[in-house]
Write a structure and sequence with these properties.
The protein is α/β, with parallel strands linked by helices. Helices cover 55% and strands 9% of the residues.
Length: 660
């Protein structure tokens, strides 16, 4: 027997439902809410407790939007404010729309209510058939209805299913029951045999990769949507701590390549592969996804999603939840709740996706273009945490390209990160990146280590592990550094950052043969990575392999024409051919300010090679003043071995926090 409880503005209306016979034995007593707004504490407590359980279920755990909406509706009703539930209020309170929000123009509330209504129906027709309370959203109504099931109550037939013959009051001959039972056994046996044949006895899914979604739209300009959706979905699934999700950088190396799923599985060491496509037509977008087991290519799950193109956030959230539920079905465990979406502003999200696409082009110009797009995004949504984190990473990237003054770039990066952490103190990306800035910019090792550990506790990605490893190496903690690089490589098997940072650490440890091995391995993965060519040329020349030094540094200078690569070519010429004229000319131009921005650390290295100790130390002090990240290498960099005992050098080590 069921008890329905519909919550309206100031009172509980309790509807007792009994069987047609009128028997009410076993029904629970009910405390009603009075007209003055008071309610039954027991009923409200039971509803809230059940809601917590419902939202923690696999079906709702990874759907942040639907969970927030359902909790809002329930809490408003329990607080006696059901009459105040309307599209405008939901838009502002749940989806963070501005006060200018017009429900007649922006249909986000109607769309999400419809999705939530259908989600609840699907849940109670399946996993929730035996739940003690049923929450429904009646058609054309935003006020939730609650049905309390008594212990002996049997769940009603699933929505859309026919009554059983028994409930229809019809008798069935014994032989028909026997036939039906045999048929059921055959069906179950067949299904079990099919599962055994196709699923095998392999271990449950512990890892997956989201391959770049293909853009099936006629307009190639929509490529950013497919790429951005892939990255966002990867980040959302990565919130599931027990599931290893391969980083975007590794996944995108398969973009546009017809590689067998099984080969991808072996290369990335994953159990499953998610692939899909996006089609945008006018104001509609259709996304199709398919999850396949990497061991044999067997299709585990597939589904299509369609919505307005300005409602990508809802599709992304719904798809992440559906995929997590599918993986949960194979793993037989419960996924952790995903973090809430970083924005609910569709226009800001679109700008973020465009910026991400610009960054993927890996050039100073494209990174600057991406930063401009991100600043537009945060104007639309000042609370967009991921946009602030991406701005910070872009500024750090521009420093790496030596495309700006490090001090200027780090100040902008730090400001963006501080805002991100004010908005979300649990962001692992923000904590990890703050660890890097605290070390390289503030020279605050204690805070840096605290921030990194907070990031690791919150599920840091490969980039954070890689950064932490490189910093540990500058402090001589080489074994710990290599452990972080191994973790980073496991999360990002084909990514460049873990390998580049590992090569730097090996250089500081003076394991040059291993450094060259790592750099060559990186070029096998991505042959056009200019900084890897550049590093390989310099280390090769340093150990006497001048042929490789010439080839690699000139390749880098040809593909990235900047002072940093010109100095590299001149250094190799000086090391290998005793021709110091180019190096001396570049030094003279830098001292006169005739060249573009040149790294003071690089000038220090050049002067140290030329045995100009005073100039080398002077440039190192300038490097520290400019907050160049490379200054943290000085404790173990071979270039400064001959001036390491100088009191000015020792003082500089102490100044930047490398000595107590």
């Amino acid at each position: 027997m069921d008890r329905q409880l519909t919550l309206h503005s100031f009172a509980f209306s309790v509807l007792h439902c009994s069987e047609q016979s009128g028997q009410t034995s076993g029904m629970e007593s009910v405390q009603t809410r009075t007209s003055d707004g008071s309610s039954s504490p027991d009923d409200a407590a039971r509803i809230r407790s059940y809601l917590d359980t419902l939202l923690a279920s696999p079906e709702f755990a990874t759907s942040g939007r639907k969970s927030r909406l359902l909790r809002y509706l329930v809490e408003q009703a329990l607080a006696g404010k059901a009459s105040q539930i309307n599209e405008y209020g939901i838009g502002l309170d749940v989806f963070e729309r501005p006060s200018s929000f017009d429900p007649r123009v922006d249909s986000v509330v109607r769309a999400e209510i419809s999705r939530l209504r259908n989600k609840l129906k699907d849940y109670y027709n399946g996993a929730g058939r035996l739940d003690p309370i049923v929450i429904e959203l009646p058609q054309r109504d935003y006020i939730p209805r609650f049905t309390f099931r008594t212990p002996e109550t049997k769940p009603a037939p699933a929505v859309g299913t026919a009554e059983s013959p028994a409930s229809a009051g019809k008798s069935i001959a014994p032989w028909i029951w026997i036939a039906m039972t045999l048929a059921a056994l055959v069906a179950v046996g067949g299904a079990f045999a099919y599962w055994r044949t196709h699923a095998g006895s392999s271990a449950p899914l512990k890892s997956l990769v989201v391959l770049p979604f293909e853009n099936y739209s006629k307009d190639p300009q929509n490529e950013y949507l497919a790429d951005g959706f892939t990255e966002e979905l990867t980040n959302q699934l990565a919130q599931w701590r027990e599931l290893r999700v391969v980083a975007r950088t590794s996944a995108f190396l398969f973009k546009g390549k017809a590689v067998d799923v099984r080969e991808i599985g072996r290369t990335l060491n994953v159990d499953a592969v998610l692939e899909g496509s996006c089609v945008r037509q006018a104001d509609r977008i259709k996304i199709t996804a398919q999850l396949s087991r990497a061991a044999d290519g067997y299709h585990l799950w597939s589904r299509s999603f369609e919505a307005r193109s300005d409602d990508m956030l809802s599709v992304q959230d719904e798809m992440a939840q559906a995929i997590a539920t599918a993986v949960h079905g194979v793993r037989r465990d419960r996924p952790a709740p995903a973090s809430a979406l970083s924005t609910t502003n569709a226009a800001a999200h679109d700008l973020f996706l465009r910026a991400s696409h610009e960054f993927s082009r890996h050039s100073p110009e494209s990174v600057k273009s991406g930063v401009d797009l991100l600043h537009q995004a945060i104007k639309l949504d000042p609370g967009y945490v991921r946009a602030y984190v991406m701005i910070e990473r872009a500024e750090v990237e521009l420093n790496r390209y030596t495309a700006q003054s490090p001090k200027e770039g780090m100040e902008k990066a730090k400001a963006a990160l501080e805002t991100a952490l004010q908005l979300d103190t649990h962001s692992s990306d923000a904590h990890g990146d703050m660890g890097l800035i605290a070390y390289n910019y503030d020279w605050d090792w204690p805070r840096s280590e605290r921030e990194f550990k907070l990031a690791l506790d919150r599920g840091a990605d490969a980039t954070i592990h890689s950064f932490y490893g490189s910093i540990l190496a500058t402090r001589g903690r080489f074994e710990e550094a290599q452990r972080e690089f191994r973790i980073a490589e496991d999360l990002d098997p084909l990514g460049m950052p873990p390998r580049v940072n590992q090569a730097i650490a090996l250089d500081l440890e003076r394991r040059y043969a291993d450094e060259i091995r790592v750099l060559r391995g990186a070029l096998e993965i991505k042959p056009d990575q200019f900084d890897v060519h550049f590093s390989l040329g310099l280390v090769s020349a340093a150990i006497g392999d001048c042929k490789t030094g010439y080839v690699e540094t000139r390749w880098a200078a040809q593909h990235y024409q900047a002072p940093v690569t010109q100095f590299g070519v001149a250094m190799v010429d000086a090391l290998c051919g005793a021709d110091k004229s180019a190096l001396l000319r570049l030094l003279a131009e830098a001292e006169k300010g005739l060249a573009k921005y040149v790294s003071s650390y690089q000038l220090a290295c050049a002067n140290a090679y030329l045995k100009k100790k005073d100039q080398a130390i002077a440039y190192l002090e300038k490097s520290a003043e400019a907050k160049e990240g490379q200054i943290m290498f000085i404790k173990y960099a071979q270039a400064f071995d001959e001036i390491r005992s100088d009191s000015r050098f020792v003082a500089l080590e102490r100044r930047v926090g490398l000595e107590p």
